[in-house]
Amino acid sequence: MTDQLTLLQALRLKGRVRASDLAESLAIDGPVLTAELDDLAAAGLAVEANGRFKLTPAGRDRLSELLDAERADLDTDALTTAYEEFDSYNNELKALMARWQLKDESTPNDHTDAAYDAAVIADLRALHDAFTPLLTRIVGQAPRLDHYPIRFASALAKIEAGDTSWFARPIADSYHTVWFELHEELIGLTGRTRAAEAAAGRAL
Amino acid sequence: MTLAEHRTNETRTELVVLDGTTDHDRELIGGKAWSIQHMRALGISVPPAFVITTEVCREYYDNGRTVPPHIWEQVDDAIGHLEGQTGRRFGSSDRPLLVSVRSGAASSMPGMMDTVLNLGMTDDIEAALAEQSGDPAYAADTRRRFGEQFAKVVGTPPPLDPRDQLHQAIRAVFDSWQSSRAVSYRAARGIDDAGGTAVTVQAMVFGNLGADSGTGVLFSRDPITGAKGAYGEWLSRGQGEDVVSGRMDAVHLDVLAESMPEIHRDLLAISETLERSGRDMQDIEFTVEEGRLWLLQSRSAKRTPEAAVRCAVDMVGEGLITEAEALHRITPDQVRALQNPHLDTAAARHADMLATGKPASPGIRTGVVVVDPDEAEDLADEGTDVILGRQTTDPDDVAAMSVSVAVLTEFGGSTSHAAVVCREMAVPCVVGCGADTITALAGRTVTVDAGAGIVYDGALPIVDGRHEDAALSTVRRWLLDAHPAADPAGDLADLLDMHTREEHTES
Description:
The structure holds two protein chains of two kinds. By secondary structure, chain A is mainly alpha-helical. Chain A is built from nine helices and five strands.
């Protein structure tokens, strides 16, 4: 049985999502997850439209309560330190994303230069390896995030195997999507808001 | 007639009054004075000016950095000429004459002293200027800027005596010829160290002296569309930077046609003269001081791609330039810009700009601004063109972003989440528009030109660009005439690119 917090948070971060896609993200057996989502819907916390699930307002309220309760039991000092360390990796990741998409400010990367792309992918691997110890510490502080290391590794493996759409593709669990969801989790776990972070020049 | 020529025992041309009768070369009088001389020769009123030639700069260095005393006598005479022309007096608080002092080598050069404006300023003159303009803050600001400019280029605060100010500024211009930046600039480009700089001294004119004064800018054609006919803006009682900086609201030049019809008519005639002489669209700055028109500057105008193409084609039709010159003036990038979907330029000019930000993902779309992602998805499902507007985007916004026709954010740069995601999905996106700029637009229909980073009010016409207009068809015909072997249906920008490269190789 997946805990309710994990499910509600996954639904929130994905927006409107198919049960099968969510099952893959959370590494849960498909039929099991579908049954759990049906239970949420029966409780009025989620709703299904056109095969996609999303939170109801009641579901969002419930998620807020659960996140507040979780935070009360966490070592927020340790997580804040981790978040501050994360910031420099975040800047590196953003710079890599920009290089992946743009050759310069006004020239999109058309991905015809294999050497250029390979260099960016090699730098992503280096960033991934450097970042992994911090990610391990974060998961140690907040065990609910234990699906992140698997998702990062999976996206990187697909990129290195030649399917580069896993670099930045939205909605799918690309490296950028997973990174951005982790970032959102860290903002929440340290009791911050994205708007305040944005105004401070971080989390952009 | 130059003053130097009055001095029968002089063989050198040391000082030239730019009264419209002279024809000296750039090497002697420098670029700035040359353009004044050129406008005067066309019969155009330019604020009275004289130039101390590069000959004197060479004498200055030959004499161990001293200005020969007879030069100061000539400068006094020439100031007298400016006083006569303007009806003002240098150093007098009753109708004071202020001047600008500028360096001017044959070609402009970084590291050389550029300009000191409003030289001749004193306490009494500041008070007089405050009274005449009715604007003490303006007078104080002019005084402050003069003091700062002078101290920066001369190295000391301005002395009290206007003549001392002038002499020090002239020496500073000569000294700047040998500044380390100027010397290394010349060394890097193989420019002769012996050339020297000229010093141009010109009367300042004021557009803020009353109801019959003002300042403006004028384009000899419309720089947005390229349409024939002058296009300009006028600011009654405005001075200098006011129009250029947009600090005050200028009005259409038609207003000048009503208030000062003769000045307006003269201005249009001058605009035509300058365009014919320059053989290109001109960007002209002018000032009217107490009912008298003065041209301050004229240069080739910056223009949109549409104006560049139309102007070049029209000018061939008018016999002003040749087809070869026209093709030389149009760039492949300008043609490509017209081939892509773009806003109707005339409509965009009259539209209100609601917000501007950093371009993150190009494209032009019209839609309704929606600030709630759930609502955005619902409306998009119903077939509405939704523009998602957010302070900053969350992971949970991505689904809404994917169904929106464009995305706008208040915070973030070109590497922000919104930018990365939108580029990946090819959704037009403008980021970092500023606090409360976008969320305040909820429910409004807007047009986003994401490549330019602009949000316009309302639905603007978008030109799809796939069909060549008359001007582009003409350009294609010229290119095919010049290159009979080229594919007649080939991409026009590529054709022009090939043409430009061949020209480059040949020359």
